[in-house]
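DM between two lab members

TW: hey, do you still have the Mid2 domain-containing protein entry open?
JB: yeah, one sec
JB: this one, 290 aa:
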Amino acid sequence: MRGHRQDSISLLSLVMTLTFTLLIFPPLATTDCFYPNGDPGGSEYKKCDYNSTGNANINMCCATNRNGSNNQTNDTCLDNGLCLNIQDSTYPDGSLNRYTSYWRSLCSTKAWGDGCLKICTKPSNDGDESKHIQMTSCNQQPNSSYWCCGTDNTDCCGTSDAIPIAATFGDPLPPVLSPGLSNGAKAGIGVGVAVGVIAIIAAGVAFWYIRRRRRNAAAANDNVNTNTDMAVVGSAVEVPAPPYQAHTTVQSPQELEGNGLGNRARKPAGTGDVRHELPGESAGGGHSAH
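TW: and the structure you got?
JB:
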């Protein structure tokens, strides 16, 4: 009897010890998915079920087991291997705010071999092999052929850095785009062109303004000179007209011959030409004797 009681106490002690151990040290959670560097992901990540779509070769995982923790919604597995997440929130005025995001998530094979969408793993393209990375669709659609790594990052769109992703995982990839300018570079060129156009317009306006000022200054100088000339003319001293002279006919030398001062015309002897003798003068013109 005593032995049976001791066995019961020992069994009860063992059960209590196991229970206490399980409470303190819970069993390690198993993981189904891994990051590109091989680190295990959390229990919220589960392998996507692509059997229904006939694409059983894909091994990508999405966060489909969140169960509303931290107010986060579950992902939706897309046929291209990415994960779609839609997060709804309400503005203070009661209107709905819906935020849609796309993610390169985890893979169910630790080595990240076939069936894993191994993109955005390098810092050089805004990637990280130790994290799930948000993606930006170049046409804002979930089935876009080209994507960029990062949140709202469209810099690689339209360039050779754009990541081609088939609409259905396993299908041929879209062609790699030819090298081109990024949106940031295009924006910089656009700003430069706009500044250049503004500078040209400003230079044209300045040239027109300076030319107009010079033209107005020249016109003002012409007006000053004209007014000065008019003032001089208006204040000129009046000179009296010369006295009236009768018309005199100038005679030629032939007409003056014989009437000039050196050639007097001969007149017939008359009373006006009689010579008067002085007393004591002989008739012959001699002197009297003493």
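TW: got it. Residues 178-208 form one domain. Helices lie at 2-24, 183-234, 253-256.
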